[in-house]
Amino acid sequence: MAPWWSKSLGANKLEYVDYRCYRIYTRFEDYLDACDSIDDRSREVLRRRLMGETLEQIGIALEITRERVRQIAKKESEALRKSYSATTGMLYFDEDYYSHLISTYELDRKDGEKWLGIPSSVWYYLELFGIKRGTKDLNEALMDLEGLEAGMRLKIKNYLNRNKLFVDGVWVEKKRSDLESVVVRKFCQENVSFDDFCEIYNDFLRQEEIPYDDKIYYTEEVKRTRENRLCEADFLLWKLNKQMRYYDIASRDYTELLDVLNLDSYENIEISTVKFMRDYPDIMIKYDIRDQYELHNLLRKIIPEGSYHDFHCGRMPDIEFGKFDRDAAITSLLMDSAPISKTDFADLVSDIYGYDPAVVMGSYFNCINAYYHDGMFTVDHKQMTSDNMIALKNALTDDFYYISEIREIYNKIVPNADSEEINTYNLKTMGLVVYPRYVLQNYSTLDSYFYDLLTREDVVDITSYRNRFGYVQAFSIKLMELKRNLEIVEFLPNQIINIRKLEKSGATREKIQDFCDVVYDAVPDGEYFSIKSLKKRGFESELFDLGFEDWFYANLLHSDNRFTIGNMFGTLIIYKGNADITIKSFLMHLICGYGMVDMIDLQNELNDDYGCNVTQKSDITVKVKETPIYYDGILDKLYANKDMYYSDLERGGF
Fold it and tell me: pTM for the whole thing?
């Protein structure tokens, strides 16, 4: 059986557009031609007005005054509308479809004709009836559900994007700065030289058929300026020989990286980021930092100048904290290390400061050349009297000291003390285990000392340890090793508990492994979750009876290499699998899972379900920038991509 509206379609009373039926209204111009209640001169006046002729032009053509033309147009147009209503029972002409749009929103007529398909006669028709142009921002029309139907809103959206380029699901302004980030993301996943990038950039614009414009394309005149701009950009890492690589700086949380580097422990020192690359390879892999130059560039972009004891980025790859006297530091180190060969001493300087040994030997040894003879650096160590040695030995009650601290102690306990007596020879004579910058007693190795330090107590606040041993790589290595082996567990930031204490409470290694196994089975592959979200799903474990905060249980999973963990929005987000997870990847996973989600609902989910601390919309919008995720600020909704947004727009699903 034919639908009820099929007869109306056949009779030209309805039209079917975009899966909807619309009533057909007569065009004013057509009714003007057909109406027999209007005289020929009046018909000609109205017809000429619909063609855009001015009152004066019409008056000249019809040999009447301008004022008479105005009077005729006003009177006869109103009479014609009354006649139309009386004859058809309808209030509107077809042209009135555009009345709300044009009278409400600011829109250029030429753009309206080109992009929205509004005939020129419509504009003159509305002027004929005295309808004024609107002043509202056209962006607001996208949520005008009652005044504008879906097809028109879609046309408006296309019009608003007319000066943008749609690339990989993202609308991009045709501006050099915006296009640069797109090209870097699309073509510079691996290292690319700046010169090659310039060619890639221009080729991309030509491929996208963007007409040549020296305000957009790269020219020789702007290359230097753009190079400087890209050096500061937050979507790439810059390195030696003007090489660059896409790196989404804004989407990552650097809490763990900065925690491992422990920059707060550095003071009045200069080091090369080579040292960090060498000392902490695991964290560099986790953050996909590939060399010392990338790390230098990253730290420069994420750490404010002057923080961390006056942090400052020098020339790649050196970073500085406060004031550093390199000559004095190298001389002091030699006093503590001689006798030693030139090569071995260069390696020692490199171990401590990260400098290239070849550079050290070629440029940094001028201050100690006086101590170099026959291939060796030698120093005539001053000997300490037995009384002074006994006094110093009695004053050293701790297990670990920096040599600089021992000099300070010596100056306090010995009148007119000679600090040069604090040297390797005398310290070893006292029975201390001597390292280049520190000494140890009561333990044979740093490994055994740090093991005891971190495990001797059931519960330990390691905040002071992290500050004190920031220079000592062995401390960070031992801490990470003990966490991985579950000999200690971090139950709150910088608060650790020993496994023996946990076992006394029933949390044995076997039960912890069972916990990890059950979580692994309960969570789908590739899923992001937190302990809080896990609990909200109804997940239960007898370990929860221990009463620890969620931080503790997340760190139990951190010991299992089947999970990846990142600190995001102040909480530990866990991923089932091994991947380079970021805040951006987490948010995209959530939004794409929904397809479309209200901003407030997403914020509530992050805070209430996952335990995150998201207070500002910008916490989210900044992280998903330059992804297919589309955020409509007017509707305050996030969409998995632009197509989903358009589909929602067409459905009127607001």
Answer: 0.69
